[in-house]
Design goal:
This protein is mainly alpha-helical and about 260 residues long. Helices cover about 75% and strands about 0% of the residues. The protein has eleven helices and no strands. About 35% of the residues are buried. The N terminus is likely disordered.
Length: about 260
């Protein structure tokens, strides 16, 4: 699982040329530019704003607040998923499992060498993959590795729920406000509702993964794990991004009118 949620380098995609799009400027984290949506230099800004924010939202979840963005890091974050998928298509589930274990350890190590620190999500993923992967290979039972997305999704759901009690702000608020780079005009009660929806959606995906694993062919489960969960997360996030984009535009208009 890569919920997995700054993996693609949105900023890097705009490097080497003038940032003309207000939405791209905000997603890239370039401050101090306050272009109006209808200004001449804004080229199709509104058409791309929500998708860009949606991608960044997915990346925030996927990578758990990584503070660097390059194409190499994009590849590093997607490495385990790519290795597992290719390994399965070429050699089957058990070779794919072994390759996944190696890829996760490699991801953890390379990130440590590049940044000087370990990432919590990498550590958790390696721990889960090593335990379930070892059981899969030693017992020659694919059911263990099929539990991996469910375990990680369930842990993520529990984290969202726990943030409502233990953190200063719900995790959903921290993730979404990081996408918009500004406080959002949303009430605390609404943030709690959004956070609860995140926890519920992740729990639903956790249950869906194990249902597909138990009731469908192995290849269907692999496709669901690689493509289905990622698509489901994007579908879940896009309405939120569109709604919050509308709220930021309203707040900006009110400030401009004042």
């Amino acid at each position: 699982m890569m919920i997995p949620i700054r993996l693609p380098n949105i900023a890097d995609a705009l490097q080497g040329r003038l940032v003309t799009d207000m939405a791209a400027e905000r997603v890239a984290g370039i401050g101090g530019i306050h272009d109006h949506a209808s200004a001449a230099q804004n080229l199709d800004g509104l058409a791309h704003e929500a998708p860009l924010r949606g991608y960044r939202m997915q990346l925030q979840v996927d990578t758990h607040f990584v503070g660097y963005d390059t194409r190499m890091n994009q590849l590093l974050e997607w490495l385990p998923l790519i290795v597992f998928f290719v390994g399965f298509k070429l050699l089957g589930i058990y070779w794919a499992t072994a390759a996944l274990m190696i890829a996760c350890v490699l991801q953890l190590t390379v990130h440590r060498l590049r940044t000087g620190e370990f990432k919590t999500m990498h550590i958790i993923t390696v721990a889960v993959v090593m335990v379930l992967g070892s059981a899969t290979l030693l017992l020659h039972d694919r059911r263990f590795i099929q539990w991996k997305p469910t375990v990680l999704l369930a842990l993520a759901a529990a984290t969202f729920l726990g943030s409502m009690v233990l953190g200063k702000q719900p995790l959903a608020r921290r993730l979404l406000e990081a996408v918009f780079n500004e406080p959002l005009p949303v009430s605390p009660r609404t943030w709690l509702l959004i956070n609860s929806l995140w926890a519920g959606w992740l729990a639903l995906l956790a249950a869906a993964n194990i249902y597909v694993a138990w009731h469908f062919d192995e290849s269907i489960w692999v496709n669901f794990k690689v493509f289905g969960i990622t698509a489901a997360m994007l579908i879940f996030m896009m309405p939120q991004i569109l709604w919050l984009s509308g709220k930021t535009k309203t707040a900006q208009s009110e400030r401009g009118g004042a």
